Amino acid sequence: MRIVKNLTFQVIVAIICGIAVGAIWPSVGQQMKPIGETFINMIKMVIAPIIFLTIVLGIASMGSMKKVGRVGGKALLYFEIVTTAALIIGIIVANVVRPGDGLDPSKLKGGDVSQYVQSGQEMKWMDFFLHIVPSNMFEAFAKGDILQVLFFSI
């Protein structure tokens, strides 16, 4: 009875039930799509405020700015290490799985790719750094722009 109240167990059961419904009754799965999208939107809705409050309360409870700097440096180092590890894992998996292998490029629509290439070329490094500073804190929260929320909270 205790395991039934365990959140991890409940999540695993829900995932298995979702996969079963999608595989056995796809039409029911399509009818339940609004429920899933609503759930995802609710999660997205609380991400920015949670990050903001966590950072602000964490900094406020530190006491001295020396501690804040030390913890910030450690957090930055951790972020860099984890990002590098994720990058290495991604490169290894891409080389093993080889996504797109056997894909015929002549069957692709050229218009779909060109808009992404253009937007990628338009963004310069300075634009990226200027984008981090929010012009309006409420807009950063409304758009869910986490980098701007982080900058504002610090």
UniProtKB/TrEMBL annotation:
Residues spanning the membrane: 7-25, 45-63, 75-97
Topology of the protein relative to the lipid bilayer: Multi-pass membrane protein
Keyword Oxidoreductase in record: no
GO terms of molecular function: fumarate transmembrane transporter activity; malate:proton symporter activity; succinate transmembrane transporter activity
Compartments where found: Membrane
Transmembrane is among the record's keywords: yes
Pfam families: SDF
Gene3D superfamilies the record matches: Sodium:dicarboxylate symporter (1.10.3860.10)
InterPro entries reported for this sequence: Na-dicarboxylate_symporter, Na-dicarboxylate_symporter_CS, Na:dicarbo_symporter_sf
Superkingdom of origin: Bacteria
Signal sequence residues: none
One GO cellular component, as annotated: plasma membrane
Keywords associated with the record: Membrane, Symport, Transmembrane, Transmembrane helix, Transport
BP GO terms, sorted: L-aspartate transmembrane transport
PANTHER family assigned to the protein according to its UniProt record, in alphabetical order: AEROBIC C4-DICARBOXYLATE TRANSPORT PROTEIN (PTHR42865:SF1), PROTON/GLUTAMATE-ASPARTATE SYMPORTER (PTHR42865)
Reported function: Mediates uptake of L-cystine, the oxidized form of L-cysteine.
Name this polypeptide is given: Cation:dicarboxylase symporter family transporter
Organism field: Bacillus cereus
Phylogenetic lineage: Bacteria, Bacillati, Bacillota, Bacilli, Bacillales
